[in-house]
Amino acid sequence: MTAAGQNLRIDPDRLWDSLMEMAKIGPGVAGGNNRQTLTDADAEGRALFKSWCDAAGLETGVDKLGNMFATRAGTDAEADPVYVGSHLDTQPTGGKYDGVLGVLGGLELIRTLNDLNIRTKHPIVVTNWTNEEGTRFAPAMLASGVFAGVHTQDWAEAKTDAKGARFGDELDRIGWRGEEEVGARKDRMHAFFELHIEQGPILEAEGKEIGVVTHGQGLSWTQVTVTGKESHTGSTPMLMRKNAGLAMARLLIEVEEIALSHAPHAVGAAGHIEVHPNSRNVIPGRAVFTVDFRSPDLAVIEDMEAKLAQAAERIAGEMDMEIELEKVGGFDPVAFDEGCVTAVRTAAERLGYSHMDIISGAGHDACWINRVAPTAMIMCPCVDGLSHNEAEEITKDWACAGADVLLHAVLETAEVVS
Ligand code: HGY
Ligand code: MN
Ligand code: MN
Fold first, then answer.
1. 102: how many CB neighbours lie within 10 A of its CB?
2. Residue 278, by phi and psi: left (phi above 0), alpha (psi -120 to 50) or beta?
3. Model confidence, pTM
4. Ligand 1 pocket check: which of 132, 135, 194, 196 to mutate, most ligand atoms within 8 Å of Cβ?
5. Atom 4 in ligand 1: which residue has the minimum CA distance?
6. Which of 43, 219, 328, 396 has its CA 20 to 30 A from that of 348?
7. Three-state SS for 78?
8. Measured at the alpha carbon of residue 155, what is the angle toward residues 144 and 175, in degrees to the nearest 5?
9. How far apart are CA 170 and CA 173, in angstroms?
């Protein structure tokens, strides 16, 4: 096996042009993207990615949940492939780089190997995981979770969006249900590497180009349904009201205080909030919201969930209302594979990029794939740590440093033959 030359780099302009080309699909209203999973825009983005994979000579397989696998053959057809990739779906007010950098950074890796006719022993597979964001269909990382054996395919397909559309029906509607059994590949993965923007402020603040992701924090999503009583905002005396919106507000303050009680690492908020009937002159009879708690420590997550349940019970009693809690998503904190993490760190050192170990604040498909294959992540900074916002920005240098490290870590693992 020959080591990849220290000067080996990806093509910065080609990577950046691909990112900008993909960003034209499912544009947002403020410079970012709204390419939500299983929408027509998602289908268009998938088609563009596949056309690029075809042009790069890759064989693209699709499984029954739309996960895409574009393979570059290795010299040893029996060798388990090295997988790279992330997700092309975005938040409703998403950025141009969240997920996309990992998919197109993987494609750029392939294009670079093709340019130089570098052959590896292990095949290399570029992946696009369906519905990483979990914004249209909860939970997040849905299809990679089924692939890793955490959820069943039926459970995923039955998920509905805010308008009642079923995941499985939408997948068929956009024509991206493949033939492969979901997870059929999982016992034959040599490794998985995911390049992703940090989505937080640490790397930029520390002046580091590369995050060597050693762990991912755990996540808990609890959907809270408060049932009060709709009535007239003008003629209902204050003491006669059952204001579900008020109970929700009290609980949201509790969520903030519960997370702060586990400072500095725990976080908590509710990003999904609905009140019914959401009319200006009706006391809300129902409030539905999802509490997102996260921490690197599982015991802290469990304590925050318990404290939320206690607060809900207390407030339900004080306000004579019904408050139901349902766990709708979550995963334990993950420790990534030491061998793969070392390959990332060694690549950054060999390439001379400043780097630091980091724990991922956001969830990623890698958090599930880590259960079935040796897995690690590479992070690049983002401007002001901003993500899940159309103003999400990264520099071209950061994107290319991350893709260079991905290239070298993968070549180290896939074994360069010539
Ligand atoms: O929720 C997350 O952390 C990821 O962005 N889906
Ligand atoms: Mn992401
Ligand atoms: Mn995201």
1. 33
2. left
3. 0.95
4. 132
5. 363
6. 219
7. coil
8. 65
9. 5
Q: Is the CB of 132 under 6 A from ligand 1?
A: yes
Q: 218: Cβ below 6 Å to ligand 1? A: no
Residue 2 has pLDDT above 80, yes or no: no
Q: Which parts of 354-395 fold into alpha helices (H)?
A: 365-369
The answer, yes or no, to whether any atom of ligand 1 lies below 6 A from the CB of 142, is no
What three-state secondary structure class fits 7? coil
Report whether 354 contacts 208 (CB < 8 A): yes
Question: What is the SS3 assignment for 110-177?
Answer: HHHHHHHCCCECCCEEEEECCCCCCCCCCCCCHHHHHHCCCCCHHHHHCCECCCCCEHHHHHHHCCCC
pLDDT in tens, 243-299: 999 999 999 999 999 999 999 999 999 999 999 999 999 999 999 999 999 999 999
Tokens 């991922």 identify what position? 360
**Shortest-distance ligand to the CA of residue 102:** 2
* Residue 388, Ramachandran bin (φ over 0: left; ψ between -120 and 50: alpha; else beta): left
Rounded Cα distance, 122 and 2, in Å? 14
Distance CA 27, CA 24 (A): 6
Task: Find out whether 198 and 356 touch, Cβ atoms under 8 Å.
Answer: no
CA 69 to centroid of ligand 3, rounded, Å: 20
Say if residue 267 is exposed, middle or buried (CB neighbours under 10 Å; 0-12, 13-18, 19+).
middle
Give the per-residue SS3 of 36-74: CCCCHHHHHHHHHHHHHHHHCCCEEEEECCCCEEEEECC
